[in-house]
Amino acid sequence: MRIAFFDSGIGGISVLHEAMKQLPHEDFLYFADTLHVPYGTKSKDEVLTFVKQAVETISKEEVSALVIACNTATSIAISELRRIYDMPIIGMEPAVKPALAMNRSSGKRVLVLATPLTLKESKYRELVSRIDDMGMVDSLPMPELVQFCEQLNVDSQQIIDYFHAQFAPFDLSLYGTVVLGCTHYPFFRSVLKKILPDSIHIVDGSAGTLNRLTQLLSDRDQLLGKGHSDLKWMCSDGNPAYLEKMRKALQLFEVVGV
Ligand code: DGL
């Protein structure tokens, strides 16, 4: 049985990478919806249809648990998927709670970067209104980052210029934490570290998701704990060039994401 990871494209590899480090004795499957990436600029109904189609394909594999390694897909489809399937399904959400906790003593603000659809959805708005009682959270959609990432363009001058332009309206000295609320964004971590003031922490949602995954699998006694790990790549259009790109992205993440 494999632990499956699903994203619109290569973004979820940032979560897979961490999972492979934490669970080195498990087998993994990674599925990218190459036919429909990006999700974050599409309508809720379209994304729900695409996610259901993709998970239908994944469910035909031998899978012990499914990680929706995509904040956008989680916010649109997780309840529906949990109604349809018996397997454990773990989602992602922007790490707003840990970010607010980090800043409690400094009184600094939190800036959440995510796709337009994630930021528009009620799941995100409810999360923020539940925990941000002091009004410390600001949000900034960055849809272009998904396109750059899909081209493996993650640390060029174009990216640096893009970030400078996006952050220009913000007084960054007011911020203590930037939340990467899209799984494509950790690919830009090394550029962000260069651009943002040293005092700003950069957090993503992988840790919470992977803790939940490990807990669920161990409760069900489904951790394989064997001598080696195997990884199977899949994508919705079956394009061999994209399978190769996913392998490259995993290697690239070692360099730019950690
Ligand atoms: N990686 C995804 C996320 O975490 C979605 C990116 C996209 O397809 O727009 O939100």
UniProtKB/TrEMBL annotation:
Keywords: Cell shape, Cell wall biogenesis/degradation, Isomerase, Peptidoglycan synthesis
Location of the active site: C70, C182
EC number(s) reported in the record: 5.1.1.3
Coiled-coil residues: none
GO molecular function ontology, one term from the record: glutamate racemase activity
InterPro entries membership: Asp/Glu/hydantoin_racemase (IPR015942), Asp/Glu_race (IPR001920), Asp/Glu_racemase_AS_1 (IPR018187), Glu_race (IPR004391)
Catalytic reaction equation(s): L-glutamate = D-glutamate
Binding site for substrate: D7, S8, Y39, G40, N71, T72, T183, H184
Keyword Protein transport on entry: no
Pfam families: Asp_Glu_race
Pathway connected to this protein: Cell wall biogenesis; peptidoglycan biosynthesis
GO process terms (BP): cell wall organization; peptidoglycan biosynthetic process; regulation of cell shape
UniProt keyword Isomerase present: yes
Family assignment from sequence similarity: Belongs to the aspartate/glutamate racemases family.
Physiological role: Provides the (R)-glutamate required for cell wall biosynthesis.
Database matches in NCBIfam families: glut_race
Name of this protein: Glutamate racemase
